[in-house]
Amino acid sequence: MYAIIATGGKQYKVAEGDIVRVEKLDVKDGDTISFDQVLAVNNGSLVVGQPTVAGATVSATVMTNGKARKIVVYKYKRKSGYHKKNGHRQQFTQIKIDKINA
């Protein structure tokens, strides 16, 4: 059984027991969170929502909040002496999928 959920402007295919990194959520470690934007559920037969599946939710436990590895953003224009180096670390929330209620 799996479900497709939407959170943080992205879509994730999840199954029970999966550990997923999603965009930062405003929750503490150990809290339980429920996703109600379930786009599709497959439990033998695929049910696709229009736009979401009515009455379907996915519950998960927050494992940790953190920052991803640093990426380097380097801007450069030749012959003009312009260069700019910048770094970015994206924040994330790591969750464990507990139950898919469909």
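Above is the first protein from milestone M3; the second protein from the same milestone is given next.
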Amino acid sequence: MNKVPDRAIRAKKRKRTRHRGTPGAAPGTVASDPNAPRTTIRVFASSPGAFFEQDITKVRDLSDVITRYKTVWIEVTGLGSAERILEIGEFLGLHALALEDVVNVHQRAKMDSFDEYLFIVARMFDTSDTSLSEQISFFLKKNIVLSFQERPGDCWDSIRQRLRQRHGKIATLGADYLLYNLLDTIIDSYFPVMDRLSEEVDALEEEITAKANPRQMHHVHQLRGQLLDVRRAIRPHREMINAISHHESPLITPDTHVYFRDCYDHVIQVIDSVDTYRELTSDLRDYYLSMVSNSMNEVMKLLTIISTIFIPLSFVAGVYGMNFDTESPWNMPELKWEYGYPFALAIMGIIGIGLAASFKRRGWL
């Protein structure tokens, strides 16, 4: 398998998931990627004994929902419309620099604090392809969680279902607890990715133990690349979650701080798993080279033994093949002997069998 196409495909996928603003553009410029999915808005709102869910086409329709319900989740999917994003930002009073970070989806996980809201960036992986990650941006206001994601498809179906059923604390606590659930689900979505990579590492170790081949080394490099992608995405979450859990803001209640500390523990677990499996892939690379070296040593040992056995046989054959004058009394008497040829073959056979037996007794064969 050729490494170059795979590397090019991975780079192409990463390029598709990142969009940067034009160099030299004014700060706060919101320019959407023309290839990004169209922007849609869906609202989930809940209060004790009430629930509302609907697609929104006009941003101004959000005003009535925000005033009527205790907790409102505005879910924006697709970043293809800069005008729509600016309209949402103007309606909610969001800073242009934060909106610029929303559409420039190369951001690291982070938290920025503004006067009336918090701006949070996280990264979510596609569980089927670790070369594809997606930036998720959040704005937390008094009773609002506003989320932006690059494309349809995420890991929040269970949260939506709990909201619809008005089940558990998510239906009664505020927007900060909803934000915790969304972030915690993103972090927890890393665990299936790590489970799949760990299974690949274990299977690859068994393959190398059975028989080493060049394809396995290529697989090791692929795994290291995937683990590097996960590590690059998850590590900034440690600082971001830690900043939220220790941030003194009226937007996050003391009770919710406890949940964010638990989320921080999950981040540490993922980071530890990534570091562990990166070390394992390094060990696999050394193990593969060791197996190849041992296999080569076995081949060289066998060839050396064969050469060692045939050296004395060649000597005997060379001596009897010199064909000296048979009339001289110093020449080999076997040259005129009736059984001279079988005698020479018998000597060579005895020498070969004796050497092979000696090597076997020493454990070389």
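Note on the second protein: Strands lie at 40-47, 50-56, 71-77, 110-113, 118-126, 129-140, 144-149.
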